[in-house]
Structure formats: C-alpha cells, structure tokens
Write a structure and sequence with these properties.
By secondary structure, this protein is an alpha/beta fold. It has one domain. It has four helices and seven strands. It has a seven-stranded mixed sheet with strand order 2-1-3-4-5-6-7, sandwiched between helices. A hairpin with a 6-residue loop joins β6 and β7. The longest helix has 12 residues. The chain starts with a helix and ends with a strand.
Length: 149
C-alpha cells in the first residue's frame, strides 16, 4: 500500500463516528476506590479509544455536587469530558452522540446502577433511560431509551 493511500485511509477512519472519533477525547472518571463496575465502565470507554484517567475519590457526594448533578439522577461514578459530565452508567452511543451533536447540556445521567447497563454485566433485557440535563436549569429529559430488541 502506498503511503498516500494509507494516510487517506487513516484520515477517513478518524472522522467516522464510532470508528476512531473517540481517540481525541480525554475523559476523567471520578469513582470510589472499591467500585468494580466503575472500573468496568471506564475500561469500556478506554477500549473504544477514549483517553481515560481515573481518580479515586474519598467523597463522591462532593464530586457530584461540584458538577451540579441533580441528586435524583446520581449514579455510581461521575466522568467529565469536553465540558460535559457523564453520571453513572451512560452507554457509549449516548456519549458519542453528545460529543457529535454538542447540545447545550450540562451532561447525561443514568440514575442508579441498572442491570445490563455498560459496566453492569450483559443483560439482553436491559431497560433504562439516559437523561439529559440542560445547562440552563430547565427540566431534564430522556435523551436515549435503552430497551430490549
């Protein structure tokens, strides 16, 4: 393969969502030191090409409050990426859509720890919602509904 062909191929892959787009995004995941599902969630983003760093936090409540995550939407961990927060087990496709569309949101949240969500095991019957939290303080709304096929 010629060098020019190779470089064009690499450049085209880098701009296609889900195939390399994440490589340029740095993410910091704030988590409890003893939480395994947080590590699994961060690992999935890392494998998808995100540059993930984790910070073990002694006080996750303080972290969530610092990002103004509504308490009713609190999940397990809180990540920050490109000026947004990802609260809890937000799936890759929701994060990729957020970064692609750049809506005026503070962040996305998956409340609690739903079975089958990213980092919480493989459950084909997974059924939960990803909630969008607007920056302007207006009501959160459903950004993505995850349900069985």
């Amino acid at each position: 393969m010629k060098r020019r062909t190779f470089l064009c191929l690499v450049a085209s892959v880098a701009v296609v969502p889900g195939t390399g787009l994440a490589a340029s995004y740095a993410m910091t995941v704030h988590k409890d030191a003893n939480c395994g599902c947080c590590a699994a969630w961060a690992s999935a983003f890392n494998k998808a090409g995100y540059a993930v760093s984790t910070v073990n936090e002694p006080d996750m409540e303080a972290v969530k409050n610092s990002f103004d995550v509504p308490p009713e939407l609190w999940g397990c961990h809180t990540a920050e990426i490109e000026g947004y927060y990802l609260e809890g087990h937000v799936p890759l496709e929701a994060a990729e859509r957020l970064l692609r569309e750049r809506p005026p949101l503070a962040g996305l949240a998956v409340a609690g720890m739903p079975s089958g969500s990213l980092g919480m095991g493989n459950d084909p019957g997974a059924d939960y919602e990803v909630i969008a939290v607007p920056r302007d303080g207006s009501e959160p709304f459903v950004y993505l509904a995850v349900s069985p096929d």
